[in-house]
TrEMBL record:
GO terms for molecular function: peptidase activity. It comes from the Bacteria. PANTHER family: AB HYDROLASE SUPERFAMILY PROTEIN YCLE (PTHR43798:SF31), MONOACYLGLYCEROL LIPASE (PTHR43798). Keywords: Hydrolase. This is Proline iminopeptidase. GO terms for biological process: proteolysis. Gene3D superfamilies: alpha/beta hydrolase.
């Protein structure tokens, strides 16, 4: 009798355990994240792509955006470099943000590859592009409860300019690989980075720049082999990701030269951003801010650390193995720090 009773107890326990396991498996199978659910969105047909009309004094033009994911509390608008670059420099974000369910929006600025190209230099001003970002913010319903703005290189200039005018719309700000002063950027390139190069090669580059011989294939060859692979993306050119190559292939040279200039050693000549400097205004930025620099960048990492201390609520992330595109050549450091910042601001633990 005792044996039969024990057998019954064991059988009951096993049956209960099987039911629990089955229920647990069903629960896991039934769970479906809404992160990639576009079924209730007006951009489902286009896979997240929206052409947003931008009103300017010269007419209305459309700019290209593409949303990835859904997250009502963490939305990151990505501002590419150049000017005249493309969103492709951020393609590697696909490998990190979805796993954290962070929503992000690719965006080609006006006169960049996927957007309209009026080719009107009167629109090539920081004031225009700040207004463009603001119109995009409104069109995408971004606000102070969810809106993170990330800009890399020229996009970093734009993030600073936007924050100084519209920071009440922001939840978080990320300045990636950009100093707050064009003159200081030029000084670092010419006094620190240039002299580190082979003296003969640097002299040859300087001579071609002095003679405005920028179209000489030799000029590009010297930069690519001796400067870009050291300070733009630290890997052999043949190993550069297709996304980075697309940025170069699709770059709009007209707007780039107009605003940045021909030289890679700072903003020179008649570049419209040549004297741009907001270093004294950084103290007015009160929104939580992450400044990302890299040891081998074209931008001075010590200066960028100083920037993070000038803003009211700043944090500095150094990519020790990175250069200007540290989202590629020091990827783990870059995304670990970036994701932590976004979540810390979201959790209000920043």
């Amino acid at each position: 009798m005792k044996t039969r009773f024990l057998t019954l107890i064991v059988f009951t326990c096993l049956l209960f355990s099987c039911k629990n396991n089955k229920t647990e498996k069903n629960t896991k199978a039934d769970y479906k994240s809404s992160y990639f659910d576009y079924s209730n969105s007006d951009d489902q047909f286009t896979g997240g792509v929206k052409m947003i009309p931008i009103t300017t004094p010269k007419g209305t033009f459309n700019v290209w955006t593409k949303r990835v994911g859904n997250n009502s509390k963490m939305k990151v608008l990505l501002l590419h470099g150049g000017p005249g670059g493309t969103h492709n420099e951020f393609d590697c974000f696909d490998g990190y943000f979805p796993n954290e369910e962070i929503e992000y929006i690719y965006y080609d600025q006006l006169d960049s590859y996927y957007s309209d190209k009026p080719n009107d230099s009167t629109l090539w001003t920081k004031e225009h592009f700040v207004e463009e970002v603001e119109q995009i913010r409104k069109a995408l319903n971004l606000n102070k409860d969810n809106f993170y703005l990330l800009g890399q290189s020229w996009g970093g200039i734009l993030t600073m300019e936007y924050a100084l005018k519209h920071q009440d719309n922001l939840k978080g700000l990320i300045i990636s690989n950009m100093m707050a002063s064009a003159p200081e950027y030029g000084k670092y390139a010419q006094e620190v980075l240039g002299p580190k190069m082979n003296a003969e090669i640097y002299k040859e580059i300087q001579d071609m720049e002095a003679n405005h011989d920028f179209d000489n294939p030799r000029y590009s060859e010297l930069l690519m082999g001796n400067y870009y692979t050291e300070h733009i993306l630290r890997m052999p050119v043949e190993k550069w990701p297709k996304s980075v190559n697309l940025v170069l292939e699709h770059l709009n040279p007209n707007i780039y030269v107009f605003m940045q200039g021909h030289s890679e050693f700072g903003m020179t000549g008649n570049a419209s951003l040549k004297n741009w400097d907001v270093s004294k205004e950084l103290k007015n930025i009160k929104v939580p801010t992450l400044v990302i620099g890299a040891t081998h960048d074209t931008m001075d990492p010590k200066y960028m650390k100083w920037m993070s201390e000038e803003v009211q609520h700043g944090r500095f992330l150094l990519c020790p193995n990175g250069s200007h595109l540290s989202q590629y050549d020091d990827q783990k450091t870059y995304f670990t720090g970036l994701i932590k910042f976004i979540k810390d601001v979201y959790d209000e633990t920043f």
